[in-house]
Design goal:
The longest helix is centred in the first third of the chain and has 24 residues. The chain is built from eleven helices and twelve strands. It is elongated, with a radius of gyration of 24 Å. It has about 325 residues and is α/β, with parallel strands linked by helices. α2 crosses α10, α5 packs parallel to α6 and α7 crosses α8. The chain binds beta-D-galactofuranose (GZL). The site of beta-D-galactofuranose has 15 residues, from α2 and β9. This is Simple sugar transport system substrate-binding protein. GO terms for molecular function: carbohydrate binding.
Length: about 325
């Protein structure tokens, strides 16, 4: 009799384990039970920080999209520190959320924590910024911009603007956060494009960490050590706005004595563009919330999503900014 009971108990244990393995491997819940109701879903989002107008617009848009969808969003702000994002992701794994989404502050150093999410059966979606991991199974999808193209668009404007110039054009570059995908790629795309005109030379390049204060501080140093700067290429509006403060403090006229190109097209940047203090802005949309909700809903329904979903973006001249400003959402 004892033998019979022990075999039955072993059988129940195996079934239970099998059931557990199926549950933990199923994205967003138990694949046998089908999709969860949206109000049962929990998503953990690890945000970079609140370093720029773009970031605060991105956070607001994601939070309102999940609120509108009735999906619980756990949110963390890493103050631009990778260790804080990793801590937040680990905490979401501990809490057993259904999905994790995050914008990696830098490209490298994510494999360990993403493998922990994978082992826990929690699908991960990258938003805004990418990781350089060789193992693409560590995330379901990347949703964001083509930063190389953004850099190329900035460089193309310069080529057109100086098409008839035979004089050297001295450019200083305000880089985004060191190691961040937008900083790496916007520099790459821009450099490739301006190489088409050998009058262009980047005489100084340094990170302003995507902040207005950082852009101002670096631009002050550039102005002190470079007497004849023609152009500033800033990887985001906030650093460009900081550069404007430094240029004006030096008694020069931004947009005229020194031309400025930035990326993002947030309201403050567009206002400076309309006022003639910035000459050209390449748009980078922070409005990723609805697309992220759609990805989560599709996965929850057992569907599949594209590995890379690139957002639609445009560019703005001073005239276009004057027209677009009244309807600008962020
Ligand atoms: C780009 C985003 C960048 C913005 C900056 O998608 O990661 O970070 O261009 C923001 O304004 O700080």
């Amino acid at each position: 009799m004892k033998k019979l009971i022990s075999i039955a108990a072993a059988g129940v244990l195996l079934l239970g384990l099998a059931g557990c393995a199926t549950d933990s491997a199923a994205p967003g819940g138990d694949s046998d039970a089908g999709p969860k109701a949206l109000d049962e879903l929990v998503v953990g989002f690890a945000q970079v920080g609140a370093e720029s107008g773009w970031r605060t617009a991105n956070t607001k848009d994601i939070q309102s999209a999940f609120a509108d969808a009735g999906i619980e969003l756990k949110f963390s702000d890493a103050q631009q520190k990778q260790e804080n994002q990793i801590k937040a992701i680990r905490s979401y794994i501990q809490q057993g959320v259904d999905y994790i989404a995050f914008s990696p502050v830098v490209e490298t150093g994510w494999d360990a924590v993403l493998n922990e999410a994978k082992a826990a059966g929690i699908p991960v979606v990258l938003t805004d910024r990418a990781v350089d991991s060789q193992d693409e199974s560590l995330y379901v999808s990347f949703l964001g911009s083509d930063f190389i193209l953004e850099g190329e668009k900035a460089g193309q404007w310069l080529l057109d603007e100086y098409a008839d110039t035979s004089e050297p054009v001295n450019i200083v570059q305000l880089e985004g956060t060191t190691g961040a995908a937008p900083a790496i790629d916007r520099a790459e795309g821009f450099a490739e494009k301006i190489a088409e005109n050998d009058n262009f030379q980047v005489i100084a390049s340094q990170t302003g960490d995507f902040t207005r204060a950082g852009g101002k501080q670096v631009m002050e140093a550039f102005l002190k050590s470079n007497p004849d700067i023609d152009v500033v290429y800033a990887h985001n509006d906030d650093m460009g706005l900081g550069a404007i403060e430094a240029i004006e403090a030096a008694g020069l006229t931004p947009g005229e004595d020194i031309k400025i190109i930035t990326v993002d097209a947030v309201k403050d940047g567009m206002q400076a563009l309309a006022d003639g203090k910035i000459n050209f802005i390449v748009e980078c949309s922070p409005l990723l919330g609805d697309q992220l909700v759609d990805i989560i809903k599709t996965l929850n329904d057992g569907g599949t999503v594209e590995k890379r979903i690139v957002t639609e973006e445009t560019t703005f001249t001073q005239e276009q900014a004057i027209e677009a400003l009244p309807d600008r959402q962020y």
